[in-house]
Please model this.
Amino acid sequence: MPFTRTKDFAPARPRSRCRVLVGILSALAVLPVVVVASASPASADTSQFRGVNWAVPGDNFKKVPLVLDGLNQSDSYATVRAKADAVYSGFASQLGVNTVRLPVNTHTVSSSWWNAYRGTIDAATARGFKVILAYWEDGAAAGGRITNTAAFNSMWNTVTTQYGPNSLVYFEPMNEPHGYSASEWTNLAASWINARPSIPRGRILVGGTGYSQDIRPVCADSRLNGTLLSYHHYAFFYGTKDYAGWVQSFRERLGNCASRAILTEFGAPMDTGLNYNNASSTDNFVRYLRADTDSLRDLRMGSVYWPALGGKITAGQNYDWYSMFALNGSGTNLSVSIRNSTGADRLRHGWGSDRPTTPRYEAETLPAVCTGSIDSNWSGYSGTGFCNGDNTTGAFAQFTIDAASAGTATLGIRFANGTTGARPADLVVNGSMAQAVSFESTGGWTGWTTKTVVVPVRAGSNTIRLNPTTANGLPNLDYLELT
Model:
């Protein structure tokens, strides 16, 4: 989000824009240029993105490595991944999130912290989340402009080499490129794309001009065809309006490009008791958020709320008053809780649902059956505990799920296996063997991850049973999700 944000409704003050490298575009021109014969098209709509931003306390504009809210720079990869998994579990179960937007900068990727930080990305993709990696100003960019082209390109070359093969990872070359004119920015974006032809265009998000406020110029540039577009819309950009005025404000800077656009930043206070479900409210923030989420739903646009955790520190507090969640716990035993249930309602409404979109069945909750014990000694689990099955071939765990229709269903089985070897099991659906599943070592009992399987189901109630096939028994089981 932009640097400036205050607890009033005034637009952000204009900021000085550093123009120190007027030769930036000529520098970028030396990058290898490859003509893409058939770029991957962007989606017909972007409603599949139901996301939140996880940010650094104090915002992501840092000249140091980025340490997200809840992490410590001394954390190992395993610790970061366990913390991230606990956080993502709360995002998914409480809000229906399936996407997280994470910041990167040159100081993070070029340091040893990057090896640990990658746990935030890997934990997300392991559970099937989409991840948007966006570059924030960090000294190698200032005033909304890149000031160290070599560092910028080196960072992105590392990131795209490591995560380009992962279809769940998306790339946003620069957050809020407000230091550039429209033509400068589209030239830079086109150069970034041409320098990395192996990245499908449908996994690239090009920010709008200014503070990503206007996507019409980037949408109109044919060199950027097939990409997704990153759009920001805040109340403090534009002052006070009625509901109709906020709808117009949201839509006018989209032009006819909503089918490619994702609202990657928007937000409102979540700690002041505002009722965002009140359609008659005269509060500016309520009218703004209702207009944005109604527009998202009508246009079938995806969105990524700012922020879930982290962000600007509000005076007199230790968190961002826009933050959707409070962070609880310590170490890897973290959990999150929604600050304002009506704000969460509006996010779900914008996503086209009034409830979390992924049904979850906890291993410790009836009618689930665990032939063993329900334990809570290993952190990072969802709900109130997990199934610790007996170490014998006769043990089993069983879930009862509801399917909307007969056919096939995708199941996500969240587990941890702290041993060095795999723990195989037969997956039995409604009494019939469906497939063999191997639960590999996760590196520790707090190393929760998700195994995805596709199984046949009938309409209505189905039993999903896991029978271990060795005397080592099952891994610890947290929950089963039906997607």
User: Anything to note?
Assistant: The two ends are 32 Å apart (CA to CA).
